[in-house]
Amino acid sequence: MPHNKVRKAVIPAAGFGTRLFPATKVVKKELFPIIDRDGRAKPVILAIVEEAMSAGITEIGIVVQPDDIEIFTDLFKNPPQSELLQKLSPENQKYSRYLQDIGDKITILTQEQPEGYGHAVFCAKNWVQDEPFLLMLGDHVYASDTHKSCASQVLDIYAQVHQSVVSLTTMPAAIIHKAGCVTGVWQETNSILQVTQLVEKPTVDYARQNLRVVGITDDEFLCVFGLYVLTPRIFDCLAEHIEKNLRDRGEFQLTSSLDSLCQAEGMTGYIVQGKCFDTGLPDAYRQTMIDFRNISKE
Predict the structure, then answer these.
(1) According to the model, what pLDDT value does residue 237 have?
(2) 298: pLDDT confidence band, cut at 50, 70 and 90?
(3) Is there a contact between 8 and 61 (Cβ–Cβ < 8 Å)?
């Protein structure tokens, strides 16, 4: 069994952001601004990094395209030029130093070719090595309903079950074609699930025949919330799919490899007490800009 303590987080940020084109032609979607509970404008990727840190993560690998290394390095590791730094308020000068402190925890990794989300995760293999790790989407931010952050909740479940954990939420049938969905058997009703199958973007008909979960209403399904704790065996599953060229919609996806991991080692699903905000679609991003600050203040 790998080390029980989860120290590392991986954040893939190498996608082109086709759904937010043409804005993503000049600004990476992970760098789009959001407003936090303190009224501070920050790039989405910073909010995700802070979510990881809230769970005690001490090392963060961000997977980017080679051409984007400089911009992510500049954000986290380089202060503004001295004449610009002096124009900042004392509070923002302090915040600039805070960003560099965060930068000490960050390693920039690269995905040489745009081969899909699963392939981007695989690109972190040598950096992660033989440890469990927290995997986070590069275009989702979170607000917990409890005193524990969403990421902390998921890491706590991993510490209890000692197997990979996928975070879950309920979604209406009308939108499950946009998400990864799971089925399984409750270990703790409406909280912890022993996962038996994961499927990427199923049709409603397939979900109704194969992904029903006891106690979930007929028009809802359990779908991925966007946080995972994975054992390093996921890299073996990804490698097998890459070697066999098993693509979905032309790319190497993560969910099919997660299902392989589930069959090999078992997997726990956990319904997060919190809300997930998608910043990767125009209307969802607009709603996140409206809701995230207010909900994260509650």
Answers:
(1) 96
(2) very low
(3) yes
Q: Against a cut of 0.85, is the pTM above it? A: yes
Cis omega before residue 22 (within 30°)?
yes
Residue range 8-297 forms a domain whose CATH class is alpha beta
What HEC string does the chain produce?
CCCCCCCEEEEECCCCCHHHCCHHHCCCHHHCEEECCCCCEEEHHHHHHHHHHHCCCCEEEEEECHHHHHHHHHHHHCCCCHHHHCCCCHHHHHHHHHHHHHHCCEEEEECCCCCCHHHHHHCCHHHHCCCCEEEECCCEEEEECCCCCHHHHHHHHHHHHCCEEEEEEEEEHHHHHHCEEEEEEEEECCCEEEEEEEEECCCHHHHHHHCCCCCCCCCEEEEEEEEEEECCHHHHHHHHHHHCCCCECCECCCHHHHHHHHHHHCEEEEECCEEEEECCCHHHHHHHHHHHHHHHHC
Q: Are 255 and 204 in contact (CB under 8 A)?
A: no
Domain ranges of the chain: 8-297
